[in-house]
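Hey team,

Filing this mostly as a record. A colleague (T.K.) asked me to run one chain through the structure pipeline before their review meeting, and I want the input and output archived in the tracker in case anyone asks later how it was produced. No errors, nothing strange. Just documentation.

Input sequence:
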Amino acid sequence: GRLGYFDSDWYLNEYTDINFSDIKPVDHFIIYGQHEGRHPSFDEDWYTSQYLNTASKTGNAIEHYRNIGAKEGRHAAFDRNFYLREYPEIKAAGLNPLQHYINYGIFEGRYPAFNRKWYLKAYRDVNHDNLDPYKHYIAIGNKQGRPLSPSSLSKLSSFGEPNIWGDASVATNLNGRIPDANDEFLPKVSIIVPNFNHAPYLNERLKSIYDQTYKNFEVILLDDCSYDESAKILTKFANTHKNNTRLFINKKNSGGVFNQWKKGFSLAIGELIWIAESDDYCSSDFLSELVKFFRNNAVRMAFCRTDFVQSDTRQKVWTSEEYWRE
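Output structure:
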């Protein structure tokens, strides 16, 4: 809240858990509250400036906060102490936390405060841990990458820079939620298929590529001087899909698959690259499920679970999780 201003009525109404304690509200804030992300007062100027379009509709900022804002993860005030604790580099630089947030932090996805009510509502397991919400966040939630509000998380950049896909959901490992599909985010994918003597698998491999539900892709077929029927199969698919396929057949073996990868990279024109090994196959939603993660510009690579199978029986040998565990 406003520096140096404490509102006992606000404090008791906002934090009902202290109503049954013998300690005075102001003493509670000094001893505990300021370290637990509690606000000493409601800052009407702050709330109105941050959420002007919504707060102005009711004509009463505090009522808007209590009836709507708190449930949506909005903040009653800027918390100087929280901001400096959460971002020690700001404190080390001797910057004014409020001015930094207004000029930079809001665009970098930084959190202005801790919303206790929203945190408890969003993460019901917190009650079972018998921890104060903020203490839970410090000890557990922060390490698990839990967001502090739905609005600020979408702009979060772990590199301290604005996220150009600010309205995008971030990857599952960051906030436990898979991004929704977005018809406006359709980057071109260059699919590189490096092949050497994998004729028995090529039909299934290529069919699984061309049957993708995500359609904005090009296919770069690379044969490394195979001596089986690979060239014939690759040529058939290249002729069938002339609009998005290029075929390159080496007259001399390059000496290794990574040389073919490098060649594919030099030929690719897409924004994303998929190395589709010639003896693999995939589900038809492979691209549609993975491409959306790149809406978060911090994501540089996406992968999925892999099942290792016997080529002739389709019997599952092990999964990628089991392989990595070894």
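Quick notes for T.K.: The radius of gyration is 27 Å. The chain has two domains: 8-172, 189-325.
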